[in-house]
Each structure stands twice: as C-alpha cells, then as structure tokens.
Amino acid sequence: MRSSTRIVVVDDHPVFRAGLVQLLRIEPSFDIVAEGGSVQEAVDLARDLQPDLLLLDLSMEQSGLEAIGRIDDVAAKTKVIILTASDAAFDVQTALDRGVSGYLLKGSTGAEILDAVSLVSKGTNFVSPRAMSRAILAARDGAAGADARLSSLSPRERTVLEMMASGLSNREIGTKLGIGEKSVKFHVTNIFSKLGVRNRVEAVIAYNGTAASGGAARQ
C-alpha cells in the first residue's frame, strides 16, 4: 500500500482554494490535512502538522515570500510549492533563492498542477516553464561574465553548483554529500559571492553557459 502525501493548502481566495483541494483529491495518494488563508496560518499549520507539502499563494495580505523561511524554520522537512498568478521575475527568483521545491502558475491546467505536485512529492523540483523563462531572461545581465569566475570555485563548491544545476535543494545536496544543510548554505553563499550573482537561477545560468562551452565547470 502506497503511503499518502500529506498536504496543506494556503490561499486567501476561498473559492480558488476549494477548487484546488477538490482537484488534489483526485489523486488517491494525496491527503489534504488542512487549509489556510494567510501567511500566519501557513506557518502555524506547518509547525503543528509537519506536512510533506505545503501549497502557498504569494499574493495574500502578507506576501507568501515572507512565509518561506519561517516555514523552513518550524518544519524543515516540509516542501513548499508556490501556486500563484505572478510570473514576475523577482517573485520567481526570490522564491527559488529561498528554497521552494516548486513554482506553479494559477493558469496551469489541472493535469499540469497534479503532475507537478506529484513530481515534487517524489523529490523532483518543478518550475512552470513560463515562470522559469521570465526568471532566466531577467537573470542574464546579473550572470553576465560570471562564467569567467567559475575557476575560482573550490572542488566542493563546483560539486554543489553542479547539484544545484540538476535541480537539487540544499537539503538534498547535503544528503548526497553527507554534510549538514547549514554547510550547504555556506557553500552556496560562497558560490554566489565568487560568481557575483544574486541567486540560484543566475548561478545555474553561469554554470550551464560555461559547461556548454567546455569551460571551468568541467575541470
């Protein structure tokens, strides 16, 4: 018997939230354990229930972006999936930088949402293609020239960067390398500093650009 995936849904629009819950219940392995309508409820439910996944809207009275770190503080194993109408590059970049496992747009079809939530529940990060395209376009200038600085990374930092480019979260990287998540965050901070980038998206762009041309990332 398959174990169920325990999910909390937080959105301040009751009608949309009800529709989303109904959609998720189509998948027998999804167990919707609670609903909420605010950032504070998201944090409280994450702390009290320790769900596997928490679907979070950004556009509430308080920005959902503020909740991401707070949720991680009280429920470190809970994976956060952003489900929002915003494909603004700032929102996408900031959410990814803060470690969310998924970024979905409310314009996605029901099948796309179910597929994405299923992927995240199995350990694969997911970002809606349109949202990722916006983030990549906005990040190009910030990442310009960073490939020339990849050679300054230590072997461990290059390994961490390669894993970031593969879509792994800090927690997943730590598990694979046998180090704590705080150590991974330390390496990630050093990578950002050495590459002169602001977030994971820009760092991955720099890595992918250099790897494609056979540069430092392959050394």
TrEMBL record:
<dbReference type="InterPro" id="IPR011006">
    <property type="entry name" value="CheY-like_superfamily"/>
</dbReference>
<dbReference type="Pfam" id="PF00072">
    <property type="entry name" value="Response_reg"/>
</dbReference>
<dbReference type="InterPro" id="IPR016032">
    <property type="entry name" value="Sig_transdc_resp-reg_C-effctor"/>
</dbReference>
<dbReference type="InterPro" id="IPR051015">
    <property type="entry name" value="EvgA-like"/>
</dbReference>
<feature type="modified residue" description="4-aspartylphosphate">
    <location>
        <position position="57"/>
    </location>
</feature>
<dbReference type="GO" id="GO:0000160">
    <property type="term" value="P:phosphorelay signal transduction system"/>
</dbReference>
<keyword id="KW-0238">DNA-binding</keyword>
<dbReference type="InterPro" id="IPR000792">
    <property type="entry name" value="Tscrpt_reg_LuxR_C"/>
</dbReference>
<dbReference type="Pfam" id="PF00196">
    <property type="entry name" value="GerE"/>
</dbReference>
<dbReference type="GO" id="GO:0003677">
    <property type="term" value="F:DNA binding"/>
</dbReference>
<dbReference type="InterPro" id="IPR001789">
    <property type="entry name" value="Sig_transdc_resp-reg_receiver"/>
</dbReference>
<feature type="domain" description="HTH luxR-type">
    <location>
        <begin position="146"/>
        <end position="211"/>
    </location>
</feature>
<dbReference type="InterPro" id="IPR058245">
    <property type="entry name" value="NreC/VraR/RcsB-like_REC"/>
</dbReference>
<keyword id="KW-0597">Phosphoprotein</keyword>
<dbReference type="GO" id="GO:0006355">
    <property type="term" value="P:regulation of DNA-templated transcription"/>
</dbReference>
<protein>
    <submittedName>
        <fullName>Response regulator transcription factor</fullName>
    </submittedName>
</protein>
<feature type="domain" description="Response regulatory">
    <location>
        <begin position="6"/>
        <end position="121"/>
    </location>
</feature>
